[in-house]
Structures are given as C-alpha cells and as structure tokens.
Design brief:
alpha+beta, two-stranded antiparallel sheet, 43% helix, globular, disordered N terminus, disordered C terminus
Length: 509
C-alpha cells in the first residue's frame, strides 16, 4: 500500500509498506497457530520429563517451522506444496488444457465470450450509447465488479525532465484521490504493451498516397529503408480500465433505472472525470472501447501477430455499416495447451509473467520504462499497474492498525532488552506519518505491478526472460509467478482489470 495525495511531493518517503505483515513476530495468525500446534507435543513431553521424546518432537517441530515460516521465492514451502498439488491436479484431471469452440468446430453465439482460465468468469455486455458509441461493460461475476476499458494515446515520458515527471505524478495522485472521494470507481488499471510492427499500416498508407511520377531512384531508396526499418520497429499501446464494485454501483444504478443500463449510466458519470484526469497526465486521446474493441485488445494480447490482420482489415475492408470489429466470441486464443509451471503457451507464443516489487524507499514516475525496452525484434513486453483506492473509513482503519502494530512490536522489543533495528524505526515513523496524511484527507492506495514478456513459441523464452530480469536488476525485484503463469499473464498483458488480489487480512483489516 501507499498513500496518494493531491498537492505536494509525488511520494511520501517511507509511507510504502507491505500489505498483510503479521502481528505475532512477523507471523500471520495461521502461521502462529500452526507453529504452536507443532511445538505443543515437545513442550508436553518436556513437562513429563520424557527427554528423548521431547528431542524427537523438537526436531520435527523445527523442520515444520522452517517449512511454514521461511519464504522461498515469495512463498513458504507448505504454500509451494499446496500450489503444486493444485497445479498437478488440474493437469492430471485435464482441467488445465483449453481449446476454443471455433478450433473444436463448435458453433456458438457471437456475443458469448469464449475465454480460458480466470477470464471465463467475465461477461461483456454492451451498455447504452455514450457520446455516439456503445461502451462495453466488463462484468467480473466472481468479484462482483463492473468496469470499462479505454484505449489511450500518449507521447511517452522518456524525454521529460524530473520536474515534469514530478508534476505528472502529482496529477496522478490527484486523480486517484478524486476517484476515492466519489466512492464509485475504486480500481484503475494502466496497461502499456509494445507491439511488434510489421509495417502493415504504413504499407497501406503508402499505397494510397504513392505518386506515380516519383523518381525511380527515390522509390528504390524508400523501399530499402522501409524493408530495413519495418523488421525492427516497435509501437506501443496504452489502455486504462476502471471498475467499481456491485455494492458501490447498486444505489446509483437503481436511481438510473436498474439492470445493466443503470450500472452503465452510473459508470458513465465517472468516465468523463477519468478522461479529464488522464488528459492532465499528458494523454492526447481517450477512446472508450465497444465490445469489438475489447475483443481486439484481448485477441492481440494473446496473439500479437493478429494485430496486423486486424489493422489491414480496418484500413481496407470496412463493413457495409461502417464498422469493423471482432466479435467477443473470437477474442480468446484458439488453443492453450497444458500449462507449464514456469511459462504460459498460447496461440503459437510463449509468455513469462512476473510480479514487480518496487523498493520500499519509493520510486519515481517513469522508472518502470526499462521493463518495456525491447531487446530483440519480434518480442513483446507488457507492463500493467493496478491501483485500488480504499474508502476513507477503510483507509483510516488500515493506517491506524498499522501504526498500532508497529508501536506494539517496537515497545515489546524495548521492554525485553532487544535492540530496535533501523527497519523497525522506519516502519514506526512511516506508520505515524501515514496516519497523519490520511487524517489530512489523503487516500490509501493499494497497488500491484505485473510485467510479462512474450516471444514466438519456437524461441527460447528463458533467454528473453533473463533479459527482462537484467533490465529490472538494481531497480526492482521481479518475482516469477510460477505455477500461476496463465493467471499472471492476464494480470500483466490484458486490459480487463484483473490483477489486484483481494486485500490480505490479518487482525486489522
């Protein structure tokens, strides 16, 4: 979590903290109860002077404690074992492999989504008309969320100065605070992904604007330049997805007539405010997507090569009614075979996804750019940041509990004669400052960052994954989401608003 603000510096140094830190010596309640359970037999044996049995139980308890408490690549050994059992169960029961209806030769409704994995819980109804077009609503039936996705154009931040980046960061904080005060939309997901550009759009434009009287030498030189540049050129796509919970939308949706249309109108009232906030961040245009637009965004996420065909179709073969689009039933991959533990294979491509862990000391606006630096022509990199703005009441509870927990830990160490570490002092000071910031009207924002790299299936995906890890080295820590690569790919590469886990709850939140 971090604290966002409207005016002032771009980040409160020291306010970032890891969500779900345990109360009991850093342990969660479940870990503490399990540890007490495995230590109890040894203590009982000692109370009965059964020293050989006590030693045996103590050795057993020590081994189990290591398995429960010591994290290995972000997860304790018991969690790894549970995840491995679930993963292998899905593979053996043939639940994991997936094939689309079209690939199987089965007919289906063009408006019914046909998507694998966690995407199967989504519905994509079209809302009523909004500024001349019908916006696609993204309904997460599991979490009870309603959202919409827009495609953005932005000139980038690579050439901006530090002061300009700081101003953009401040405006981003202002936008998040404003959304938090409205308490309707509470999640914003920003997706940036590179697109291997094969020059299709430019070739179509050239054919339309070619001058028949151009000199032959100029034609030859231009053709050579196009051939050399097209193989290494890269474009960038930018999407934003905003969503709100069913509970937050129920009352305004009922006032707007209820049903899907009522929820759409409740969202529409916020979309213009979101668009204005994005324009303050340098976004040049905001285009809210219809169901066909969302389908194309998802399709090209699974299959980057499909972008060329869709672009050519838009430019050369418009439908009689003036619209060209992909039905939502064709948005998914044709085939997603049995998943691997360390990669996700889909439509002739292989992807590796990571959770990006920023440093606790904070970072600056635009520092994630190296994760999008394509190293080899033909690879694709994606980066998605998911924000959730907590309500004022929830934010106050979180920071109050965090401050109380840190004070208890520091005081307990001091009373027992243990030294207080610099980390303890920094967390205690940051918790007090964060509570003061929330009391001054700022917002608590949960966030997660996911990144992925996608290459053709016949390439060695491990080599390209290592290059992504090298680009993050020294800036961020990348945690490879093994045994969950299919879900991690959705969080990193698809603009549907899935990627932020539910809030971890200890005793406080």
């Amino acid at each position: 979590m971090t604290t966002s603000q409207s005016p002032g510096p771009r980040v409160y140094r020291g306010l970032n903290h890891t969500e779900g830190i345990g109360w009991i010596a850093g342990m969660t309640p479940v870990q503490a109860f399990l540890l007490i359970g495995v230590c109890a037999p040894a203590l009982i044996a000692m109370s009965r002077n059964q020293w050989s049995a006590a030693l045996s139980w103590a050795v057993f308890a020590a081994i189990v404690a290591v398995l429960i408490l010591v994290p290995i690549h972000g997860r304790p050994a018991f969690r790894w074992l549970a995840d491995l059992v679930m993963f292998q169960t899905g593979v053996l029961m043939r639940w994991s492999p997936w094939q689309s209806r079209a690939a199987a030769g089965l007919a289906g409704d063009a408006g019914e989504p046909d998507l694998p994995g966690v995407l199967a819980r989504l519905e994509f109804p079209d809302g009523p008309e909004f500024h001349g077009s019908r916006i696609c609503l993204i309904h997460d039936t599991t979490e009870g969320r309603w959202g919409a996705t827009a495609k953005l154009t932005h000139s980038g931040v690579g050439m901006l100065s530090d002061d300009e980046c700081e101003r953009l960061a401040t405006r981003l904080g202002s936008m998040l605070v404003g959304l938090g005060h409205r308490e309707v939309v509470d999640r914003v997901s920003l997706l940036v992904r590179t697109v291997p550009d094969d020059g299709t759009e430019y070739a179509v434009w050239r054919d339309r604007h070619q001058r028949p009287d151009a000199p032959a030498l100029a034609r030859q030189v231009t053709a050579e330049i196009d051939r050399d540049v097209a193989s290494v050129s890269v474009r960038t796509e930018l999407f934003v997805t905003v969503s709100g919970t069913e509970e937050a939308l129920r009352r305004p949706a009922k006032a707007a007539g209820g049903g899907i249309a009522g929820r759409a109108f409740a969202l529409y009232r916020l979309l213009e405010g979101v668009a204005d906030g994005l324009r303050g961040l340098g976004v040049q245009s905001v285009t809210w997507l219809s169901s066909t637009g969302v389908a194309e965004a998802v399709k090209t996420g699974f299959n980057p090569a499909a972008a060329a065909g869709l672009s050519f179709r838009h430019l050369t073969s418009p439908d009689p009614d003036g619209t060209v689009g992909l039905p939502i039933s064709q948005a998914g991959p044709a085939l997603a075979p049995t998943p691997a533990a360390r990669a996700y294979h889909h439509d002739g491509y292989s992807s590796v996804a990571y959770a990006v862990q920023p440093p606790e000391s904070g970072t600056i606006f635009g520092s994630l750019g190296p994760l999008l630096a394509v190293r080899t022509a033909g690879e694709r990199r994606t980066l998605q940041i998911h924000y959730e703005i907590l309500s004022a009441a929830a934010g106050a509870r979180v920071v109050k509990s965090d401050r109380f927990r840190n004070n208890v830990l520091v005081d307990a160490k001091a009373q027992r004669g243990f030294n207080t570490t610099a980390v303890d002092s920094r967390r205690q000071r940051g918790a007090r400052e964060q509570e003061a910031a929330v009391a001054a009207g700022h917002a608590v924002v949960r966030f997660t960052v996911a990144s992925a790299i996608t290459v053709p299936a016949d390439w060695n995906v491990e080599d390209h994954a290592a290059r992504l890890e090298n680009d993050a080295s020294g800036r961020f820590h990348l945690l490879r989401l093994e045994l969950a690569q299919d879900s991690a790919f959705v969080a990193a590469a698809l603009p549907v608003g899935i990627g932020l886990p539910r809030e971890k709850r200890a005793f406080d939140s």
